[in-house]
Amino acid sequence: MKMQHFDSSTALNDAFAADIAARLQQAIETRGQAVFVVSGGKTPLPLFKALAQTDLDWSKVVITLADDRWLPEQHPDSNEGLVKANLLQHKAAAAHFVSLFDATHQDDAFAGCAVIAERVKGLATFDVLILGMGEDGHTASLFPCSEQIQAGLADNAPDVLAVQPATAPYQRISFSKKRLLDSRQIYIHLVGEKKLTVLQQAEAGPDASEMPIRAILQQQLVPVTVNFAAS
Ligand SMILES: O=C1O[C@H](COP(=O)(O)O)[C@@H](O)[C@H](O)[C@H]1O
């Protein structure tokens, strides 16, 4: 794991956006398209705004989410709504977005999960995956407090699973650890000292079902870079 400390989130976002654009550009040149997987929550908002202004042939970029809350995009807590309002704008408006929500099963992520599995099954290896982390050590929607945590971390897990966290709102849909690790480069994006403390706790302990971010930190298949700023 590579750890990068930045003096400010502005410096982090500028460098991060340039790095992502270079990797997506390289993927387009090598394979004709790039698959870019982002996370929701509050942390990535300024990064999304910076990326939206970045020169790239976005029409060759497929964007999806590592996870989403099972909500229509109009809901203020929908990660899809956040991505559409902040990333899929300006120069990045030409990107193709793959939603993790299905309105025909809008009240039940468990019923809708098969639709999402079908939708994402053709996605190639993720060229760039950005993960966030909650203060409980969850990443994507692999929540330690959920009944689905062992299924999400299993080596034979499906690509996506529905999750009901016990201590966070909304049903979720999440890529499994197995599918998240089918990536060429993983970034963990952290802002705030508290998240750094949580990351250090995660590095120190063995059990990924207690802190699912460990499944990303303690593997050797995919390079991981942590981009951190205190504020
Ligand atoms: O619930 C979620 O939380 C994490 C972390 O969010 P943040 O607001 O602390 O940045 C996020 O990575 C994940 O995508 C989201 O669904």
TrEMBL record:
This protein's pathway: Carbohydrate degradation; pentose phosphate pathway; D-ribulose 5-phosphate from D-glucose 6-phosphate (oxidative stage): step 2/3
UniProt cross-references to Pfam families, sorted A to Z: Glucosamine_iso (PF01182)
Secretion signal, residue range per the UniProt entry: none
Catalytic activities: 6-phospho-D-glucono-1,5-lactone + H2O = 6-phospho-D-gluconate + H(+)
UniProt EC number: 3.1.1.31
Keyword annotations from UniProtKB, A to Z: Hydrolase
PANTHER family associated with the record: 6-PHOSPHOGLUCONOLACTONASE
Similarity comment text for this entry: Belongs to the glucosamine/galactosamine-6-phosphate isomerase family. 6-phosphogluconolactonase subfamily.
Name of this protein: 6-phosphogluconolactonase
Taxonomic source organism: Rheinheimera marina
